[in-house]
């Protein structure tokens, strides 16, 4: 899929799929004096991209020892904290499993593994000489967030709105088919592995359209499922206890959707607009976009920890243990007095 991926502190971005390696969004593609890239946006394919790639990589290698910069320190701290929080969340899954919604545990584990992959790729990528390989891992982790969310929406839609289709997640054949379908759609990102070598430039337009259609399909599917779930929980005759639990899990899913939209998709769209729109921005603005992306795996696990009542009560019991007050079990002995009238002697 076409995407702008952060390569180094200089705001060098790899445009995967289009075979372009663009250096310095701050200088803009239209007039980047450092890269000798002067021209209009229409002449992007005539630029010596190999020279730009060599230039940016050489500058990045010079900055490998610059981990003391504020940017690198912030990325490292946020990524390490994200790893710790996600490991704690995995331990929370083991120590305090969901008592009421055990089926949803699988999606929580998948999201946690996804957050760990995001944090690990950021730690290895700022700055490292083998950052190109880590960026591929970063992009696969980024795209997997939409797949996990869409599958979560579809699963809860079937559970709440179409319970007659619940066999799709109990039959081994259908589960294998769902895995194969997700793998097939996910393979749209597979050409990133060769995009760095600029070997698919002729297919970039087709792959871009294909990627956009896949993303639109996933987004529309998730939106449709969310609307149907909301209407069903609002009007359907479900028992109050089940409705309360389903509403709780639905709110958690909505929060898990807002988190990647704010910290992943918005920065990516903004970077696209900056690069191809020719906007001149300040270093502070581009740094904020990068900081938002790095904070995603930090806030995402907090949603599950704080939104689910079982986990929230367990965490509160760990950090704020209540005083052990001896509880006296009061046993009430009821004495029933039965008045038996005496029979008069005959």
Automatic annotation (TrEMBL):
Pfam families: 7TM_GPCR_Str
InterPro entries: 7TM_GPCR_serpentine_rcpt_Str
Record keywords, A-Z: Membrane, Transmembrane, Transmembrane helix
Gene3D superfamilies in alphabetical order: Rhodopsin 7-helix transmembrane proteins (1.20.1070.10)
Transmembrane segments: 70-94, 106-130, 136-155, 176-200, 212-231, 252-275, 295-314
Name by which UniProt lists this protein: G_PROTEIN_RECEP_F1_2 domain-containing protein
Species for this entry: Heligmosomoides polygyrus (Parasitic roundworm)
